[in-house]
Every structure is written in structure tokens, then in C-alpha cells.
Amino acid sequence: MTVFALGARPLVLFQLVFALVLPAPVLSQDQPSSQPPRQLLRLQSQAQAGNVEAQLKLAQTFARDGINLDYAQAEYWYRKAANAGEPVAQNDLGVFYATGRGGQPDYQEAIKWYLRSAVSGYALAQNNVGYMYSTGHGVERDDAEAARWYKKSAAQGLAPAQVNLAALYSEGRGVPRSDYLAFEACRKAAEHGYAHGQEMLAFMYFRGRGVAQDMEQFARWMRSAAFQGRPSAENQMGVIYEQGYGVQTDMNQALAWYRRAAQHGFVDASRSLERLSAIAGNQPNNQK
């Protein structure tokens, strides 16, 4: 087998960087299945008769079903259900405008619908309002207002909001800086099985931020995130096994994780594979 003789550890920068989780706001979690023509016609009939639940399901079908994709129809039925006070429809209509489905983003229209949903207590919308205030999309940036909405959403157990709130506590944006509260928010998200929260919790254990430094916990939570297919966590697992952070050094495991991350498009993992291949190629009597 290949024998690696590693000298000084290569420079690896572990950065505890809390980024806002969502490059785009969050849709409702119910994913409609593809609707056969007969069922779609029945759903349309119910929606036209004023059935709000059918209007929402029809909108979601037109917005997300690759077979029946029709953004104009999706917007029409989302608006019907949203005007009837359906909070999921209001949130999803906000996402529709924020992401520019079928056109250019309209952040003012998006925040209007998020707020209507959020004030009714819908956790996804509350997180999305927080996101808009964090980024200044459709409203003037206001970290304190973002924190207020993230707290409402996080209190309902929404993991993305918990990590977004952790970001604010870590950086002292809109709230007093607190590593402990950042750690606690990440811990809750991680225990909900949220991969981004697991990765951030791992880094907090690595840095000793809000908790005593613990390399075994660092490896444990990074592994949990990596097993969910998060490329950055897969790459970090390669580093963990290469460097022996909280585990026994294992170059085969390191290579396996780097390959997995590289297959998912993580550039640093591809560079690590090239570096290790070069090291292996320079070893005398490479086989044995």
C-alpha cells in the first residue's frame, strides 16, 4: 500500500465564520408530488370554488413540479390563497418575489408578504423577515430588527433561524456579543439534525468558543454534518483524518473524504487530493 511520510503539517485554516445560512429565503417544507392530469383538474376545480387549501397546493404544484411548472399560474394561486390569509401561501409568495421566479426579484413585494405571514406566527416567514433585515433587501438593514425576528423563529425550533441568530451573537450584530449564546443556538440547531448547525457547532468546539475546546466533539459534529452531504464538512473530515484532530490519523479516510468533497465540487478538496498525490509520488519504494 502507499506510505505517506508527512513532514510539518500543511497550513490549514480553520475559520469560525458564521455566515447567514440562507442565500435565498425559505419555502414551506411541504413538497407536493407530481399531479397526474385527472388529479390536477380536480385540484383546479376545488381551487376555483374557493378552497384555500387547494389554492395553496395548486400554487405549490405550479411553482415546484417540473412536469406542471408554470410560474404565472403559481403566482396567481399563491396570491389567491395569500389574500385569504393563508400564512404558508403568504410566505411562499414572498419567496416567489424575493427569488424572482418568472422575472426580476421584487424585494419590497417580498417583505410585504413575509411580514403578513410572520405576524401570524409562521416560523419560516419570521426567519425570512430576519433575513431581509440582515441583508437590507426590501428594507433598510437593521440587525436589531433581524435579531428580533430570528428569536421569534428560533423559539419555535426552526434550525436555520437558530444558526442565523448564532451568527448575530457571534459577531455582536444587533445583540450583545456572546459566545455562549452563539454556542447554545448552534447546539439546538445541531441537535435538530441541521447540517449547517452541526458544522458551526463543530467549529465552536475546535476554537473553544462558548465551550471548552474539545477535539473529539469537533470531529463528532463535523462527521454528522459530512454524512448529510455538506461538501465543506466533508472536506473538513479529510483534514481531521489527515491531521488527527480528535481521531487517529488515517490517510485512507482522509483521501476518501477529500474525494467525496471534490465530487461535490469543493475546490479545496481537489487541491488536497493533488497535494497528497504529489507527496505519495515522491516517496521512495512507493509500494509496500
The counted number of beta strands is 0
Oligomer: single chain
Helix content: 55-70%
Please tell me how large the radius of gyration is.
23 Å
CATH domain fold name of the domain at 229-282: Serine Threonine Protein Phosphatase 5, Tetratricopeptide repeat
Describe the largest sheet.
Answer: none
Q: State the distance separating the first and last CA atoms.
A: 5 Å
What attributes does this structure have?
single chain; about 290 residues; mainly alpha; Serine Threonine Protein Phosphatase 5, Tetratricopeptide repeat; 14 helices; about 0% strand
Walk me through this protein's architecture.
The chain is mainly α and 288 residues long. It has a domain at 229-282: Alpha Horseshoe (Serine Threonine Protein Phosphatase 5, Tetratricopeptide repeat). The protein is 62% helix and 0% strand. The protein is globular. It starts with 36 loop residues before the first helix and ends in a 7-residue tail after the last helix.
Layout: helices, strands, pairs:
Layout: H1 37-48, H2 52-64, H3 71-83, H4 87-98, H5 107-118, H6 123-135, H7 143-155, H8 159-171, H9 179-191, H10 195-207, H11 215-226, H12 231-243, H13 251-263, H14 267-281
Helix pairs in contact: 1-2, 2-3, 2-4, 3-4, 4-5, 5-6, 6-7, 7-8, 8-9, 9-10, 10-11, 11-12, 12-13, 13-14
